[in-house]
Amino acid sequence: MEKRRVVITGMGSVNPLGHNVAETWQAVKNGVCGIAPITQYDSSKQKVHLAAEVKDWDPTSVLDKKEVRHMARYSQLAMASAKEAVADSGLDLEAIDRTRCGVIVSSGVGGIGITESEQMRCSEKGFDRASPFYIPSTIANMGAGLIAIAFGFQGMCTCPVTACAGGSNAVGDAFRHIRDGYAEVMLCGGAEAAVTPLSIGGFTSMRALHVGDDPNRASIPFDAERSGFVMGEGAGILVLEEYEHAKARGAKVYAEVVGYGATCDAYHMTAPAPNGEGGARAMAQALADGGVAPEQVGYINAHGTSTPLNDSGETAAIKTVFGEHAYKLAVSSTKSMTGHMLGAAGAVEAIFSALTLHDGYLPATIHYQVPDPACDLDYVPNEGRAVQVEYVLSNSLGFGGHNACVLLKKWEG
User: Fold this and answer.
1) Active site residues
2) What class of enzyme is it (predicted)?
3) What are the extents of the domains in the chain?
4) What is the DSSP letter of 390?
5) Sheet harboring 402-410: ordered strands across?
């Protein structure tokens, strides 16, 4: 079967930097840090006091008030982002075959905040008094399900749950689904809302989170003083569309998706394989899938979590795949601005990658100060750059050894 071309025609996001894509991208260009003291609960009795929260956002400003009452926060973020993405795409929902349209939206932990509050309430009142909306609102696939219901998309609807790689898996899986002829349109991405006492406590006890109180030295990918990631929340949704379908309706195109790699370390529950071996294979797969030579890639939106093992391992993986070209590449981590949004991270970073190509702008790794000999590439420190590149690779590497890489190409029209 001939492989069909797949393009990005719409994007939407609510995240720590903004309530829509335009606001967010301007914040990225301005090098804004979305990290601040936690406001969603009293963190004074815990070690971690910082997070990258979605700020001053009222879901009822974009969603129906009655529906919002029965939706977990991650689903609210997903739905708002999906509405923006569909509007941005210009799709005429009445004119398309919605049995050929699907949804793939990831979430790592779904409605964990509701689980925490219901557990506490039911411990006092009895577990048979649990809310009838508890299960349907908290399961990780409900964000995808609600989006499909809202837009009447009756094709494949699913939710990859692959921790920090989930958003990229969603985009990559949607790309393949269209390319291989199963759909014309896919809404894809990820959503997460895990700034909760239990989530923060769990990651803290793993020693995965930064425990300091200075937002400017909290999420510092590739810096020698990095000491853990900062929890973020948000959602990113993209409209992927088969090229001829998009062309026929005169759609604008942000970028083309040309390759996807997905591997597993099969090594450890949380630690990456030595030298980022699994991530290297995923990057190599994405390049091979797109028929692209390593030297053609100009920028990598790195996973770059600000943990000691991830950043050195990802750097080693990039060197494995790109050889000497690794030192000519720009590699930055936008998690320095957004924190780590878990299942939403890869989706929001796919949006950043598409805009990098569309606008000719490389995002910075902000707050970079102290070089690390194990991390010696060009991390676009502190200041973004106006540079045109032809190909961008977006990396996501998750607990459980899940690795996903999406390769995007600049749209020439």
Assistant:
1) 164, 303, 340
2) transferase
3) 6-248, 259-408
4) S
5) 157-158, 101-106, 185-192, 234-242, 6-14, 255-264, 402-410, 391-398, 297-301, 330-332
| Residue type for position 74 | Y
- Average pLDDT in the 110-123 region? 96
Q: What is the secondary structure of 144-188 as a DSSP string?
A: HHHHHHHHT--S-EE----GGGHHHHHHHHHHHHHHTTS-SEEEE
Residue range 52-97, pLDDT digits in tens: 999 999 999 999 999 999 999 999 999 999 999 999 999 999 999 9
What is residue 1's predicted lDDT score, i.e. its pLDDT? 61
Domain 6-248: which CATH number of 3.40.50.300, 3.40.47.10, 3.90.226.10, 3.20.20.150 = 3.40.47.10
pLDDT value of residue 157: 98
pLDDT tens track for 96-105: 999 999 999 9
Q: With pLDDT > 90 as the criterion, what percentage of the chain qualifies?
A: 97
Residues 72-87, buried b or exposed e (16+ Cβ, 10 A)? bbbbbbbbbbbbbbbe
Q: How many CB atoms lie within 10 A of CB 338?
A: 31
Would you say the CATH fold of 259-408 matches that of 6-248?
yes
Q: Which SS3 state, helix, strand or coil, does residue 218 take?
A: coil
Looking at residue 109, its amino acid is V
CA–CA separation, 332 and 310 (whole Å): 14
| 194-209: average pLDDT | 97
The 10 Å CB-count burial string (b at 16+, else e) for 110-119 is: bbbbbbeebe
> pTM (2 decimals)?
0.98
∠ CA 382-387-393, nearest 5°, is: 85
d(CA 311, CA 329): 16
How remote is the C-alpha of 241 from its chain's centroid? Answer: 19
- Distance CA(332)–CA(327), nearest Å, equals 13
With beta carbons less than 8 A apart as the criterion, state whether 302 and 16 touch.
Answer: no
Q: Which of 181, 170, 188 is nearest to 100 (CA)?
A: 181
The pLDDT mean for the chain works out to 97
Question: In angstroms, rounded to a whole number, what is the distance separating the alpha carbons of residues 97 and 192?
Answer: 30
Written as six digits, the tokens of 48 are 């971690």
Taking only the tens place, the pLDDT of each residue in 370-381 is 999 999 999 999
* Domain 259-408, classified CATH 3.40.190.170, yes or no: no
Q: 413: pLDDT confidence band, cut at 50, 70 and 90?
A: confident
| Of the candidates 353, 350, 371, the residue with the CA atom closest to the CA atom of residue 363 | 353
